[in-house]
Amino acid sequence: MNFKEEYRMSKNFSLKEYDSYMKKKPLEQLMILKMLYESFKNQNNVRLVEFGAGTGRFTKLLIKRFPNFRITVVEPDKNCCLKLQKLADKYKNMKVVQLTAENFPKNKKFDIVAMTTAFHHISFDKKLKFIRIVKSILNKKGIFVLADNFIAEYKSMKERNDVLKKSMNKWIRDAIVEKDTEELKMAKKMKSLVFGKDFGGEYFICNSKFEKLIKESGLKIKEKINTTNTDPLDMEIYLYLIRP
Ligand SMILES: C[S@@+](CC[C@H](N)C(=O)[O-])C[C@H]1O[C@@H](n2cnc3c(N)ncnc32)[C@H](O)[C@@H]1O
Q1: 116 lines ligand 1 (CB under 6 A)
Q2: Which among 22, 103, 176, 188 is most buried, taking Cβ atoms within 10 Å?
Q3: Which of these, 84, 88, 63, 147, lies nearest to 113 by C-alpha position?
Q4: Are residues 16 and 125 located together in one domain of the fold?
């Protein structure tokens, strides 16, 4: 399989560094597995598409829990695709597609659309386009499960920058107080990215903006869970269960 030189995540983070950092944070992913199990435990031929699969952190959990699912993973980063392809070589029900989520074709149908910690990489002007694609590819009884970090509420872009700056500074302060060097490194890197060119490819939004996009697309939010429940300035992780 040949993948194009199209870097996303691996341009900014070493993939090893990313996996080691994220190992501590699988709660929302475990919650998604439980939700999927409750809805699909007795079904055959379940088709799932995962967008922004990265290094396969969530894909591996999915395969272990649901060995019979037919899984398509969509990921633009060449180095991530190479890792995902290694997994696909072992697990024949899995297919790797090198593409950005917002360019995925609308002509296929899936029972489950999953996206973990990747929606914030879709640029502001492409987010609604992507959600409309999800609406088109979801089967009538399908579900869209999305987990991501959301920033505190804002009304204008100027206010967005203010809350984002407060979040980044809090992250750095907390890491210093906790003497957590790995966290401090990640926080400083993220601060330089989100205020850099093209927002460093990190287009974080607040919950109300996301929920407005979902409403505009015609999809419906059935559950919304704050999996961190600490402080809105912590860029808390929310899990959404969305249906047609
Ligand atoms: C933070 S990682 C999350 C990976 C994985 N889902 C996880 O939970 O560990 C985000 C991934 O989204 C990918 N990405 C960036 N832009 C994207 C886009 N427009 N569409 C889909 N994925 C994108 C990045 O290359 C990266 O692999």
Answers
A1: yes
A2: 22
A3: 147
A4: yes
pTM, to two decimals = 0.93
The secondary structure of the chain in percent helix, strand, coil, rounded to multiples of 5, reads 50, 20, 30
Place of tokens 């979040």: 167
Could you tell me if the CB of 51 is within 6 A of ligand 1?
Answer: yes
Cα(117) to centroid(ligand 1), Å: 7
Rg of the chain in Å (alpha carbons): 18
Look up residue 112 and give its amino acid. I
Q: How many domains does the chain have?
A: 2
Close Cβ partners of 14 (under 8 Å, ≥ 6 residues apart): none
Alpha helix (H) ranges present in 45-204? 57-65, 78-90, 127-137, 157-177, 181-194
Domain match, 68 and 102 both: yes
CA 7 to each of CA 111, 130, 243: distance values in angstroms, whole numbers, following the listed order? 29, 20, 32
